[in-house]
């Protein structure tokens, strides 16, 4: 099977592979640039960054690649509009947004001539996104990591979404190798988004302890947790998650007022930052459902080479 081309607005990457934008500094310039250099679309995870930090990260990525760089910004963050404007002013190539739905973002993108891609989990919302001006949609199933917008499998929602829209459909959730890519493409996807696989890359800047949790994970270590954002999330079982399940998690020491809606049961920004910096027992380690199947850390280029070879081996 040959990998097809995908066109998002006027953007045509060499491969139809998008690296998922992981928030709170998991997807930063070195990873996004490496993906862009390998022929995919590299995506910065903007949520959790300050505006000046986001500007700097986009510029760092630009210094490292001439490829396609995008940004993922959660609608759930309070400064959503300012973050999108900042990315557009920095001439980001494409904006991805999920964890809620914004109609205004498409007008902002049109103003700057930059495509906007909505992350959706139903055919109904995909159709709304297309009508509003989305250049493509990411069909994200329950197998994904982080915040989840559905309890339905990717391969359940993918045909539904494909039937509802004419714009490109990007499959996401649980895809970790070329065989998963091939399955999604055969079911009508124009491309795929992968996040968890790229955490276990040499270019991903999370702490060694974070990557070790991924490498040592078993299937029953992957659990659902309640997020203060108001959406369920998928993470690895650890001391913090056990406390969360028992209702004995630490209360936030201070509120950053960073989310539009927050239960205040714990600070998700602190929990994600703790894990990223190696304090994995005291934080959330978000991951996709199939993380336990990944057993090596490779360069981004080697990950791409393996994916392409696997896809081409499928008839």
What would you say this structure looks like, in words?
With 315 residues, the chain is α/β, with parallel strands linked by helices. It has 2 domains: 17-205 and 295-312, Aldolase class I (TIM Barrel), CATH 3.20.20.70; 208-291, no CATH class. It has helices at residues 29-38, 51-64, 80-89, 104-112, 123-132, 154-164, 178-186, 196-199, 208-216, 239-246, 268-276, 300-312; strands at 17-19, 41-45, 68-74, 94-98, 116-120, 136-140, 146-147, 169-172, 191-194, 222-226, 232-236. An 8-stranded parallel beta sheet has the order 1-9-8-6-5-4-3-2. Strands 7-11-10 form a 3-stranded antiparallel beta sheet, covered by helices on one side. The model has no long low-confidence stretch (mean pLDDT 94). Keywords: Dioxygenase, Flavoprotein, FMN, Oxidoreductase. This is Probable nitronate monooxygenase. It comes from Desulfotruncus arcticus DSM 17038. InterPro entries: Aldolase_TIM, NMO. GO terms for molecular function: dioxygenase activity; nitronate monooxygenase activity.
Shape: globular
Largest sheet: 8 strands, parallel
CATH superfamily of the largest domain: Aldolase class I
Q: Strand tally, please? A: 11
